[in-house]
Write a structure and sequence with these properties.
This protein is an alpha/beta fold. It has a single domain, classed as Arginase, Chain A (3-Layer(aba) Sandwich). Helix content is about 35%, strand content about 15%. The protein has an 8-stranded parallel beta sheet with strand order 2-1-3-8-7-4-5-6, sandwiched between helices. It binds manganese (II) ion.
Amino acid sequence: MTDLSRFQSPWNFLGLPAEATTPERARAWVLPIPYEGTTSYGAGTREGPAAIIAASRQVEWFDREFNTEPALAIGIHTLPPLGLDHRSPEAMVNAIDEAVAGILTGSPAPELLVALGGEHSISGGIARGMVRAGIRDFVTVHVDAHADLREEYEGSRYSHACAARRIAEVSPLFQIGIRNLSAGEEHFRRSTDRVHTVFAEEALADRGWLNDLAAYVRGRTVYLTVDLDGLDPSIMPAVGTPEPGGLSWADIMAVVRVVCREAASLPVCDVVELAPLPGMKGPDFLAAKLVHNIIVQALYQRPSRQH
Ligand SMILES: [Mn+2]
């Protein structure tokens, strides 16, 4: 008999055994979108999805909170990376819109689709794909250092700097961790009731905003989009635009827990803007563990409180 210990674990998210990864069985699907077309400062987000999957194969399946290996029970299917359209950011966003809608309305379809970026501009296409798939009245929870509320940037309405503005066209937004925005973005933010912002200094001051988040998502369908630069660069330096004063690991996990506890459903989320740094594995591993924890918190049956 072949000694399987000689071989590496399979190239899928978490390196799960084949029987836990079929589309028929897997409740969560991971979609790599290695798109980088409008990045304006540090580059490298095209390497993000592969780095997250590579790091995920080191993430422990055992979850102490549940005293089991939830990912094995949930099942996770890793799709091949989405084909890229480099003609224009708009063409790419349209391709993502169609791909996401196709996945969500297909058979079989995932209960949770997790997109891995790539730059944040992909999220405008994801939100539109949700609408096209017939998901109505969802709200978006948006973790980021940047408001991303520009109408256009460097000649494109589909720049990464416009991601949240495009999402706001189809969904109200709850932003967390913002600490960099332009005068025009601040004007727009104040002029609309579609955007609620928890600035980074408010998020770090106390945890009262978590009650506001809970009320915002309670009973709703939620789209969670995490730009990793929302985290503090001391734990997440592998981003194009590292802004000091961001969220901690405990903060982002609190966001995930509140959303998964209070929302009616979380059909789609994304984790974007990882630009891996050569020789530095911590940020890749953080992103992989975050995705694991989102999937587990969203889909795994909570243990009974009666012992
Ligand atoms: Mn950002």
